[in-house]
Amino acid sequence: MGIKWDEFFVTGDPLIFASQIGIALTIVGAIAGITYFKKWNYLWTEWLTTVDHKKIGIMYILLGVVMFFRGGIDGLMMKGQTAVPENEFLNAQHYNEVFTTHGVIMILFVAMPLLIGLMNFAVPLQIGARDVAFPQLNALSFWLTVSGAALFNISFIIGGSPDAGWTSYFPLAGKEFSPGIGNNFYAVALQIAGAGTLMTGINFVVTVLKMRTKGMTLMKMPMFTWTSFITSIIIVASFPIFTVALALMTFDRTFGTHFFTISGGGMDMLWANLFWLWGHPEVYIVVLPAFGMLSDIISTFARKTLYGYKSMVISIVMISVLSMLVWVHHFFTMGNNAAVNSFFSITTMAIAIPTGVKVFNWLFTMRKGRIKFTTSMLWALAFVPNFVIGGVTGVMLAMAAADYQYHNTLFLVAHFHYVLIPGVVFPIFAGLYYWWPKMFGYMLNEKIGKWHFWLFVVGFNVTFMPMFFLGLDGAVRRAYTYSAETGFGPLMMLSAAGSIILAAGFAALVYNIYWSARYADRNIGNDPWDARTLEWATATPVQHYNFASLPEVTKLDAFWHMKKNNEIQPLTEDEIEEIHLPSNTWIPIYMGVVFGISGFLLVFEWTIAAGVAALGIFAGLAFRSFDYDEGFHVHKDEIFETERKWRKGANKGVKNHVS
């Protein structure tokens, strides 16, 4: 495309220049620190080449937290720009880039990694398995996600960020209106990350179907496992659609085809349909695992069995079906006929029914419960009223005629933030506080956690509640400025102030992670919450083989009943057998690097170089096909010693020592 080398790096903007310096210093500092403390071998053997589902889950969570910071900075910049009328903090082009990257990062590189990270950590433990079905594929999924995230994020310092919105609608996203390479980053990076997510979906479908421990039927699975399973099915159904759409977008922009370009006879509405055929199920891909986490957390801290377990399962399955039948409500304003709008209005309203069922299930679970108000439970409690606001406004938007008035205003922006932040971020925080002890062997500080909770919840409502009223007053979305005569200024300033409080809440979480890593008590036992599911029947943190002998399940909330009925028997030395585990491998991280290099070259439309680099992908696949490493065995003596240490100090006086 004839890009000039002096245009390779983005220049001319002080904010971007400062970011470039910051990134360079951070990389140099990280390399220097790792070298000084001689941690390269530790990182390589324990983390970068691991296939342990628990460590992969933790790395997903780390990626999500880092991307949360990155996407949050974008959000603060947008709020800074719109805080006052006719502001010049960001120009129109920079604002378009910021709100595009904010949306993509928050959905695909914050919510998805955090949820998949928690799925990776907890689901195999909840079903009594020693790993996922395909450990190497699991590692490859992670490194492709990292590769896609890295490629997408370097766009704002190299080449230029995408600027057509997170939906990247055509014809705006085409070469006619976006001739730069920014939207190439969108097309290529999301294909790479999406391939990783699709592999995760396949992996967890097989894991749940084939790896459950003895006695664990589908109707005895914890609710988080159920929602992760249904989510994985939705991933397998919807992500190929998005992958095809992104491939066609790449062909249009790089090779001059005309699938979506109107001037060449293409159909811009084809993109809208393909995007939302993936995009609306994607909402449930991130929301359903969050619902499962809430179910397990509320049940634990209300100290009751989840109310209406079967109805919860049925409602999740109904949502998964309906999630594929509502996509057109995202473009009611684009000229559909009355019959089409009516059908999708009805399906959109119908999805509120199974969602409402779950809300009442949670409320009835808490009714007459002996609720323990931990930080994790506070997040679960805050979810209910805030998510209901998002749901009710969603029903309002489901009416096609009304949607014509609401759709392109800040009312819609407020709605989807009231769905996604209480419906995804609140449960993720609840899950982090809940499973943190099992991951690391210590709890996050509850006092700092309360500060995190109140700052974030108050900041969230102060940020987004005014946007409902601004939207009803006619404030349009995607606008980088507005005039003083509109009268939007006071509520815009209030919303911007709320975003500062929101950022302070996130800062409290980061400080909590730091403080707890340094000072938290490590002597907390294996079951600090008096929990109900099998992941708490292991050591804290979890031993690398998960279970010395696989548990046998007879009831829902298996671990709870084992404890209460004193059914946990001493583990004798005769019962211990050698455990087979997969070996570490360098192939997944290698594949992630090669995908990233090939994708980077394709972004700049250096197609021959990209093709040559892609040969490295096939080389990796070929090498894997000749990899005959059958893993290793954990010796009985090591298992015996590990089990003796943690069972000796197990909680609650339960007789579960090694004898």
Write out key terms for the chains shown:
20 helices, globular, 2 strands, mainly alpha, two-stranded antiparallel sheet, 659 residues, single chain, 1% strand
Structure description:
The protein has 20 helices and two strands. Residues 651-659 have low confidence and may be disordered. It has a two-stranded antiparallel ribbon with strand order 1-2. With 659 residues, the protein is mainly α.
What is the fold's blueprint, element by element?
Layout: H1 14-36, H2 40-48, H3 53-82, H4 92-126, H5 135-153, H6 182-210, H7 223-255, H8 268-302, H9 309-322, H10 338-350, H11 352-366, H12 375-398, H13 400-406, H14 410-440, H15 446-472, H16 489-519, H17 558-564, E1 579-581, H18 587-603, H19 607-625, E2 632-634, H20 636-648
Helix pairs in contact: 3-4, 3-5, 3-16, 4-5, 4-6, 4-8, 4-14, 5-6, 5-18, 6-7, 6-18, 7-8, 7-9, 8-11, 8-12, 8-14, 9-11, 12-14, 12-15, 14-15, 15-16, 18-19
What can be said about this structure in brief?
With 659 residues, the chain is mainly α. The protein has 20 helices and 2 strands.
